[in-house]
What does this fold into?
Amino acid sequence: MKDMANLFETWSLDREIVLVKVLNHPRDKVFAAWMDPKALAEWYGPAGLRIESHEADIREGGLWRFDMVGVFEGREQSFPNLMRFLEIVPNERIVMDYGTPDPDDPVHVLWIRYTEQHQRQELSFIQRHFAYGIKSTPLGNGSYELHFVSYKKIPMYLRRSPKDNLHHVYVNFDNKQMVLNRVFIKINPGGTFWSPNVEYLEFKGVDPDNGKELTQRVKI
It folds into this structure.
């Protein structure tokens, strides 16, 4: 506890919130619980939510990409998370950046198969690079301009919200801003492998000012 006391003496508490939890366990066991991806997914996160890991590279410079999943408002919802490990000193400290986008892949696009019990599925190489993937352009300060690789008419913007200090994707329709949650793609039969018959894109999100749900359908 002496080290913790020194920490409080030097921390800039006027500009930061410090959360402290003392665990009555040996350091090596606590450290091991962080280093094992399976164990980390078992204990991390608040009660009532489960962790679904998509990528767990727990080392300095590595990423942990995961979802917190739980039932809210009568339906199961997923909350994407990204943790970047900046410094790891065995049995001493783990320094991480929580929630900052990966510069090489700030938005990770996945399929949600509604006809297959909402199963998540990675895009194929062709889909990611020629159809439904996202092209990002850095704007500075952790912000990015985004657009589909095959459809550039609707720009989207990834930036940190001043309200919750988290990154969200924003899109504008008719001078109205939407915090984007997901995009539904309606694909009809009759297309080809290289040119699918996309009928429309449906953008779903919320109004950043009042939280009201918004939907905008764009015919292709």
User: Anything to note?
Assistant: The two ends are 62 Å apart (CA to CA). The first helix runs from residue 2 to 10. The mean pLDDT is 84. Residues 31 and 90 are 7 Å apart (CA to CA).
